[in-house]
Amino acid sequence: MPHAAADVDRLKSRWQKYLRRQNLKTTQQRELIVAEFFQAEGHVSIEELLERVRRRSAKVGYATVYRTLKLLTESGLATAQQFGDGQTRFEVAGEAENHHDHLICLQCGLILEFENPEIEKLQDQVAADLGGFKVVRHKLELYGLCPKAMGQKGGYCPNES
Amino acid sequence: MPHAAADVDRLKSRWQKYLRRQNLKTTQQRELIVAEFFQAEGHVSIEELLERVRRRSAKVGYATVYRTLKLLTESGLATAQQFGDGQTRFEVAGEAENHHDHLICLQCGLILEFENPEIEKLQDQVAADLGGFKVVRHKLELYGLCPKAMGQKGGYCPNES
DNA sequence: CTTTTTGCAAATTCTTTGCAGCCCA
DNA sequence: TGGGCTGCAAAGAATTTGCAAAAAG
Predict the structure, then answer these.
(1) pLDDT tens-place string over residues A76-94
(2) How far apart are CA A45 and CA A90, in angstroms?
(3) What residue in B sits closest to A150 (Cα-Cα)?
């Protein structure tokens, strides 16, 4: 599901504020790109984002998307992630904080998301044991091999069509 | 410090076994590359590894290093990592296995290390449930607040002297 | 001998940059 | 108007691939 309209508005407001503070200009392209980015779910690649943007307006170049995502990252509104599939993916900041964790296949690049309350409970416990810490957020990434990648006879790769 | 000779031997033996099982050939280049790789400490880039290899024998090509590291990764003896610096780095698999996780205080910046077998067991289980994945390595970072940072009366910060 | 592997260079893929013209403030 | 933007295409950087020659089993 996409982000709630209220969240998107709040993000856009932060973006505007950032532009003003940095003496940057509001342009049609930037507005389009950030609007699509804020509405996007999960981790978006430059290519995916450009595709969405072009659905709404034909003429936006790769370079502008790169440049805008760089600004978003610098402003703290986006975070860049490397999953080892050869391209950088971006996520709306804040989404990473409460959301899902990742399972990444080292071979085929497939990325799955998961949540596990038991693990999170243990995390809290570990932190408490280490002197009374309180966990605010966490980042958990599992890197592994899907059955196919391990060379199992008949192993399947969830990524295959 | 480099890996102990005994470890290197054990790794080499696993490598040989892998080659045989996959009907691959043992070549001078491959032997050199894996020998250097197993002795290397930490996360090595292709370029660094090639440099080391060439110190011992002049004529090994980039492509061969790439291809050999791919084999090592598929065999489970190496893991690929992205640190966002634009190049892939590789680590000897065993190194990641006794890798510790981090607990970071958002306020005072203290970083503690921990290990928790129960969490790791759950990670493996999650991966298995998601279609039969095998976890090769993981990254877990907890961001939180130490007691002092939370403003607890008399709360102590382990970081203070 | 047959099959794999290698090294080279060319090809790919992802990302950044230079620059002339366009647009916002 | 003037300094930032943009799109394009060219430049870069990292990795992969095609192919003939070389090496392994």
Answers:
(1) 899 888 877 788 999 998 7
(2) 6
(3) B74
Chain A residue numbers with beta carbons less than 8 Å from the beta carbon of B106 are: 136
Dist. CA A39–CA A32, nearest whole Å:
11
- CB distance B131 to A147 below 8 Å: yes
Q: What's the predicted TM-score (pTM) here?
A: 0.66
Instruction: Kindly report the CATH class assigned to B96-160.
Output: alpha beta
Portion 2-61 of B in contact with A at CB < 8 A = 22
For residue B28, the 8-state DSSP code is: H
User: Which chain A residue has the Cα nearest residue B146?
Assistant: A133
Nearest residue by alpha-carbon distance to C1' of D25? B25
Q: What percent of chain B has pLDDT over 90?
A: 45
Cα atoms found within 13 Å of the Cα of residue A31, Cβ hemisphere only:
7
Give the burial string for B7-41 (b: 16+ CB within 10 Å, else e): ebeebeebbeebbeeeeeeeeebbebbbbbbbebe
Kindly report the average pLDDT of chain A as a whole number: 84
* Residue B128 contacts A where some CB pair is shorter than 8 Å: no
Which whole-number Å values give the CA distances from B41 to B38, B89, B90, B91, in the listed order?
8, 12, 10, 8
Sorted by where each begins, the domain ranges of chain B are 5-92, 96-160
- So what's the architecture of A5-92 in CATH? Orthogonal Bundle (1.10)
User: How long is the CA B136 to C1' D19 vector, in angstroms?
Assistant: 35
For B49-55, the CB contacts below 8 A with 24+ separation are B49/B90
